[in-house]
Amino acid sequence: MQISRDTRTLYERIGGEVPLRLLVERFYRHMDELAEARPIRDMHAKSLKVSEEKLFMFLSGWMGGPSLYIEKYGHPRLRMRHMPFAIDESARDQWMLCMRHALDEVVEDACLRDELMQALYGIADFMRNRH
């Protein structure tokens, strides 16, 4: 992977709030629609609205935009908050599948897409709490 020379934040590079909201909306749509993602979909509430808003707020700050999640909920403590769920390699890969589809639909810049996939994979892999 080639490192981007672009010094803007990921939030700026993706285009700010509107494309980020679209990314998150598409991510959860894929989670809802892909049979391969059924196990991780079943870990969520019937309505994905709360999860969608929380992921948007988290990614906003994580990508260098407004720290919406921290302002509302405090430190994300991602791993701790996900401990009640059995997250193994399969769950990580299902999450990443949904994110890959969403990124392919929303992010036109291939370099930025690859950079985001690599960074998000690191987060998804960190969430694993089962072998």
Tell me the β content. Answer: under 5%
Rg, Cα atoms, Å: 14 Å
CATH homologous superfamily heading: Globins
- CATH topology grouping: Globin-like
* Termini separation: 28 Å
Arithmetic mean pLDDT: 94
**What is the CATH architecture assignment?**
Orthogonal Bundle
- The gross shape turns out to be globular
Order of helices and strands, N to C?
A: HHHHHHHH
Number of domains: 1
Structural class: mainly alpha
Biggest β-sheet: count, sense, barrel?
none
Secondary structure tally: strands: 0
- Helical residues, percent: 55-70%
Number of continuous helical runs: 8
Can you tell me the CATH class? Mainly Alpha
Low-confidence stretches: none
Question: How would you describe this structure to a colleague?
Answer:
- This protein has helices at residues 10-14, 17-33, 38-41, 49-62, 68-73, 78-82, 89-106, 110-126.
- It is mainly α.
- It has one domain: Globin-like, CATH 1.10.490.
- Helix 2 (17-33) packs across helix 4, helix 2 (17-33) crosses helix 7 (89-106) and helix 7 (89-106) packs antiparallel against helix 8.
- It is globular and about 35 Å long.
Tell me briefly what this model is.
The chain is mainly α and 131 residues long. It has one domain (14-126): Globins (Globin-like), CATH 1.10.490.10. The protein has helices at residues 10-14, 17-33, 38-41, 49-62, 68-73, 78-82, 89-106, 110-126.
